[in-house]
Design brief:
By secondary structure, the protein is an all-alpha fold. The chain contains 5 helices and no strands. It has a domain of 90 residues.
Length: 147
């Protein structure tokens, strides 16, 4: 896919421009991710384990490779690329001996707290009896005679 984009085969100008903009955005994301990975972290945790096992340039090339893989698989959103790269980095860290918390975002337990107000059956507010405006319910007796 990336080779087709660079070669720009069988694409109209509008599509080329749109894809070029996407690639530019993705490069920005990649640069930011490489800077994050290259920062100095404490000697514990995922990035600490990676930093102990790989040099900064190795980590940068690894991250950019994962980003290219994500693009080839059709992932083209910032969030998707970030998640893909994070997953791959965790796999690499596990190979290096990183155990981690073993809990993903979806597996985390919900914190106890307020559950919201539940309404009992039949407890909905009912209008008061005297609150309705009554129209002229009395019929006029002009046309009727009692005689």
């Amino acid at each position: 896919m990336i080779n087709e984009i660079y070669a720009a085969k069988s694409m109209d100008e509008g599509k080329k421009y749109m894809i070029a903009r996407k690639l530019k955005e993705i490069r920005k994301i990649a640069r930011a991710r490489r800077e994050v990975v290259g920062e100095i972290y404490e000697g514990k945790g995922l990035f600490g384990k990676l930093r102990d096992s790989y040099s900064k340039s190795q980590l940068e090339s690894m991250v950019s490779g994962f980003e290219r893989d994500a693009l080839e698989q059709g992932i083209n959103t910032e969030y998707g690329i970030k998640e893909y790269v994070g997953r791959k980095l965790k796999e690499v860290a596990k190979k290096c001996g990183y155990e981690g918390s073993g809990e993903s975002k979806g597996d985390a337990k919900k914190k106890p707290g307020k559950k919201g107000r539940k309404q009992k059956k039949g407890s909905a507010k009912k209008p008061k009896k005297g609150s309705k405006k009554k129209g002229n319910s009395k019929k006029s007796s002009k046309g009727k005679s009692s005689d």
